[in-house]
Amino acid sequence: MIERSGLRVINMRALLSFFMLIAVAVVVKSEEKWWSAMSLYQIYPRSFKDSNGDGIGDLKGIIDNLDHLVESKVTAMWMSPIYPSPGVDMGYDISNFIEIDPLFGTLEDFDILLEKAHKTGLKVLMDFVPNHSSDQHEWFQKSVKDIPPYNNYYVWANGTFKAGGTRAPPNNWVSVFGGPAWTWNDQRQAYYLHQFTPQQPDLNYRYENLRDEIKNVLRFWLDRGVDGFRIDVINHVFEIQSLQDEPLSGNTNDPNNYGYLNHIYTKDQPECYELVRQWRELLDEYNKDGEHERLMVLEAYTDINLTMKYYKFGASFPFNFGFIQRLNADSSPADVKFVIDEWMARMPDGNTANWVIGNHDQKRVASRYGVERAQGIIALLLLLPGVLIMYNGDEIGMPNNYVSWEQGKDPQGCNAGREGFEAASRDPFRTPFLWDGTTSAGFSTNPNTWLPVNPDYKSLNLEVQKEAGDSQFKFYQTVAELRSWPTAQSGDLYTYVISDNIFAISRILGGQRSIYLVLNFGNELRNEDLTRKIENIPGELIIYRGIGNSDLPYGSIIDSKSAQIPARGAVIYVTPEMSRKFEVKLL
């Protein structure tokens, strides 16, 4: 969904050439806050754990498994929407912003979850969806009836008439899910805007009463004790008031395809930033002691310059989707270096970087990069400075799961029709968590789950990996332990392209042991002289962890001029202590 002009591409290439000439050093000087180096874990509640046997995950299932988050070295969690919803868009069509959907439990269950999470040291963020509500929301039902003040809570327009008197929408705007972004309502005798499904009418943020109403929603959850919000599609909440047509993109001839238009009037309007500033002021009211900032984490799939502006208007951080949108199994070391260096270079001084591994809208990391390479990518994001955001299941290497047209639930896929379903559907990324080898992978006692369980669950599950001598999950725990080192928390970052297939980073902090991660993107084992590109690297390093096709002896000392990097794998090295004694604990 990122639009790039030809000029933008040229500038990016020039910047890439600059980055390639040097080993980029980044001095990590973000303001220290409780969340500055946290691991944020996204739970997709429908698919995490079912406690009552209905085949759908719920709050009690999360409560009963908070220990897994602790074992995964997680600092905070956020849940995809758990509000009442008709479920047209899997909970993103909300019919009541201050309640819990009975499908997931009750407000009392939520309070218990919050209390138990806080007792274990976990912070809890709510998923907040400000752009729209469900058409079943009381506000919309009253808006349809033209009842003040709700008559102005949504974006209504009279439309136009074509030759012959045929009624038509007010402009050419297209929904993200395809088709016109306007639907006629007979009772109101007007069109309403919906940038997503017709059952998700857009809220009107140009109306002060609505803005105040939304602030009260935020206060409701803050008063219950939540630690902040992940805010959905923030860059969609305002549209241009004139409602003029958007220009054609030239990318497709299909007027019902979202890519048909260049979305300069329905996204990234200046007012989005001002709204964020107002919400930051509200959240700061709950931080009187100055020690517990409430988080405001923003989702905005947009140009990196527009993304960075959210930092300046009060976002804790806008999500960094570089490793999801711009990199995959075919990416080179130069591509990876560029994505890291660009974010660090463009981020305003004093702010905190973040790195998103996966989410419910994107292919799983094991499927994007391949199972072998994915471990190295996860290690890389664990060892980069700032916040790590991961999606439930990625810690055990869950891949996408096949979901047929008949089994499909995602409106983005279903609206694409039988032929386009597999390419458009997000269902394969949302299937149930694989706990063990029992019925439905331990996710539910019900053999019929809301989406199908991965058929390989007998061998691919958390229990198997915890019992194995070594595994994806134990690898994840071991690297997460390293993330707690002072060097990983606040050490300077250096990035290197060692050769066509070898990429490396180093984390350096005075008076502390240094950390080096070297990744091999190629299909052959490589012997590398790391001293050629990495300045001041010691002559001897200790292997902290090998990743991929490797029998490397952890804890052994190697010569930096002859470092073995396994095919499609990676190795983490640390500098020796004075005693040269070192032991990796396999958890």
Describe this structure in words.
With 587 residues, the protein is of the alpha/beta class. It is built from 18 helices and 22 strands. The strands form 5 sheets. Strands 12-11-10-4-3-2-14-13 form an 8-stranded parallel β-sheet.
Strand content: 15-25%
Residue share in helix:
25-40%
Strand order of the largest sheet: 12-11-10-4-3-2-14-13
Q: What structural category do the secondary elements indicate?
A: alpha/beta
User: Low-confidence runs (pLDDT<50, min 5 residues)?
Assistant: 1-13, 578-587
The average pLDDT value, as a whole number, equals 92
How many DSSP E strands?
22
Radius of gyration computed on alpha carbons: 25 Å
End-to-end distance: 40 Å
How would you sum up the major sheet? 8 strands, parallel
Shape: globular
Record keyword descriptors for this entry.
587 residues; alpha/beta; disordered C terminus; 7-stranded antiparallel beta sheet
Give the gist of this structure.
The chain is of the alpha/beta class and 587 residues long. It contains 18 helices and 22 strands.
Q: Layout of helices and strands, plus pairs?
A:
Layout: H1 6-21, E1 25-26, E2 39-43, H2 45-48, H3 59-63, H4 66-71, E3 76-79, H5 107-119, E4 123-128, H6 138-144, E5 156-157, E6 160-161, E7 167-168, E8 182-185, E9 190-193, H7 208-224, E10 228-231, H8 270-284, E11 295-298, H9 304-312, E12 317-318, H10 322-325, H11 333-346, E13 354-356, H12 365-369, H13 371-383, E14 387-391, H14 411-414, H15 417-424, H16 462-467, H17 472-483, H18 486-490, E15 492-497, E16 502-508, E17 515-520, E18 526-528, E19 540-547, E20 557-559, E21 563-565, E22 570-574
Parallel strand pairs: 2-3, 2-14, 3-4, 4-10, 10-11, 11-12, 13-14
Antiparallel strand pairs: 1-15, 5-9, 6-7, 8-9, 15-16, 16-17, 17-22, 18-21, 19-20, 19-22
Helix pairs in contact: 1-11, 13-17
